[in-house]
Amino acid sequence: MQILPFYLVCDESGSMAGQGIDTVNEALPTLYEEISTNPTVADKTRFALIGFSTAASVLQPLADLSELSHLPSLSAGGITSFGSAFRLLRDTIEKDVAALKAEGHEVYRPVVFFLSDGEPTDNDWEEALADLKEAERFRYAPKIIAFGITDADAAIISRVANFKAFIQKDDSISPAVALREFASSLTRSIVNSATSMAAEGGDGFQLQVDEQVPGYTSLNLDKL
């Protein structure tokens, strides 16, 4: 079977406390339901949730969505540190892909939805990001959709992304909107994806993400 590993990587810094983290937690059941209720999509998707601030941890190891009943909640604390998240994500993807292949599956290029509300405070995050997203360094380099809310810097968000990037433009529209939109896009993409692919991280799976999300600006990755 062809499997898509999907990682939601969310900032858990202190600045996310309150409405920021609450709206993401409210959206997680919607994201789960949107993907898991379609049998075709649930069979092809494996989901993991990573939370990060000063440290990073895998809150939900890669799992079959059809076997999950709920997703864990994120909590806010610490300061924004990207490097730890990117290093953990790289190690996690490598381990997960190896396990899936050992089970006899073919693996689509992993997809990452990265959400943050601030600027990183660590100095080595760009090197850690390069190790994650550059194919010559990491053969399982994922497609990254980066999403910035509140005080997130557009230039930083665009540097994190290699597929799509969005920045919040209207504080009245919660991050839950973007998560719902992304879940719908991911579901449509899996349903409509090509049936053939290269075994080593090929692009047989054609991810399609809407250019416009209500309340958010789509960043031009070529210009930033």
Structural account:
The protein has 224 residues and is of the alpha/beta class. The protein has one domain: Rossmann fold, CATH 3.40.50.410. The protein has 6 helices and 8 strands, in the order βααββαββαβαβαβ. The chain has helices spanning 19-36, 39-44, 82-102, 125-133, 154-160, 175-192; strands spanning 2-11, 45-52, 56-64, 106-107, 111-116, 143-148, 164-168, 216-218. Strands 1, 2, 3, 4, 5, 6, 7 and 8 form an 8-stranded mixed sheet that branches. β5, α4 (125-133) and β6 form a beta-alpha-beta unit. It is globular and about 45 Å long. The model is unreliable at 194-201 (pLDDT under 50).
Task: Summarize this structure as a short list of keywords or feature phrases.
alpha/beta; 224 residues; single chain; 22% strand; 8-stranded mixed sheet; Rossmann fold
List the helices and strands and how they pair.
Elements: E1 2-11, H1 19-36, H2 39-44, E2 45-52, E3 56-64, H3 82-102, E4 106-107, E5 111-116, H4 125-133, E6 143-148, H5 154-160, E7 164-168, H6 175-192, E8 216-218
Parallel strand pairs: 1-2, 1-4, 1-5, 5-6, 6-7
Antiparallel strand pairs: 2-3, 7-8
Pfam families: VWA
Organism: Streptomyces lichenis
Protein name: VWA domain-containing protein
